[in-house]
Amino acid sequence: MKLKTLLEILVVSTRLGLTSFGGPIAHLGYFHEEYVRRRKWMDEKSYADLVALCQFLPGPASSQVGIGIGVIRGGVLGGIISFIGFTLPSVIALIIFASVLHTFNMEEAGWINGLKIVAVVVVAHAILGMAQKLTPDIKRKTIALFALVITLLWQTAYSQIGVILLAGVVGFVMYREQTLKEEKSNVARFPISRRFGYIVLSLFFGLLILLPILSNLTSLDWIALFDSFYRSGALVFGGGHVVLPLLEQEFVPTGWLTEQEFLAGYGAAQAVPGPLFTFAAYIGTVINGWQGGLFATFAIFLPAFLLILGTLPFWDSLRSNPKIKGALMGVNASVVGILISAFYQPIWISSIFTAVDFALAAILFSMLVFWKLPPWVVVLAGAVGGIVISYF
């Protein structure tokens, strides 16, 4: 039964890794559709709680959510397999691209534009579902509105964290007298001990402190590379779009790769599915072949993995504490507002330019929401539709 569960996690996460275009917010939409709506591996509240936790943590939020879902389903090994399935397709694509080094421009291809429109549809569907569950009353709708306005007008790496913290305080004050009627559904439990959490968190901070010291004391290139990628993954809030310029600062001025090589990889990273952090695979491959690509991928994702595994056991007990429930109600409402903000910018404004684009979005939305077609069918239809409308 365990092997069957792990194989199921691998198959589902790999399919998501092959079809999840549109960046971290779109990934959360794909996860919501697959894991919450279709497979019911966790309920709306547990999913929103997990998303809120991963928004707090540095690193790739969507990858950490995927790891957390894998842990719920199949333990730590399930989390590892979920991560591999979701990440490996884009890693392989970027390693191949770096190996061939064809600098063709894929960003303007019709099928890429079609996939961007798919991302619009998936995120819109996720927002509608989460809003119904998480903002049922006027207070939480107001919190969501506040989160939307602030994160839309003040777009920094720390605005989301500040909004979530403030929404938690507001929720705690507003709902501290209220007893929540919990739904009798799959309340997720994370099968990780606190002792394991302490060990993992100690490893995270230990590496963060020791790697720069080792890099300065030795002249080994692989330690310097590991340090650069690890710090990039450990200290970045806001996801892949934030880590890309940071990686440029780490590797272009130091001569590891040229500006032209960096920009070629940047374009490729936008065109492949999965997390943008896999751009590290491209950089590593340019520096040291496919082995370097795998090494860089491991180094940049390791801190995200350690953080989510280290915090899950404590999060499980905190979110079931009656004193924390009100705060989580506020936090979950703010996540809805943050998703709407990200839905407008960058997803909507970088995808819907013409009436034809909007028409394709309406068709794809109907396929997903009304006709209940599988997400991979919608992705394929979006790619084909993008090619067709490119001739208009």
Automatic annotation (TrEMBL):
A GO molecular-function annotation: chromate transmembrane transporter activity
Species the sequence originates in: Oceanobacillus bengalensis
Listed transmembrane segments: 76-98, 110-131, 143-175, 195-217, 267-287, 294-315, 327-344, 351-370, 376-391
Database matches in PANTHER family: CHROMATE ION TRANSPORTER (EUROFUNG)
Family, similarity comment: Belongs to the chromate ion transporter (CHR) (TC 2.A.51) family.
Keyword flag Transmembrane helix: yes
Listed GO CC annotations: plasma membrane
Membrane topology label: Multi-pass membrane protein
Official protein name in the record: Chromate transporter
Location of this chain's protein in the cell: Cell membrane
Lineage, top ranks: Bacteria, Bacillati, Bacillota, Bacilli, Bacillales
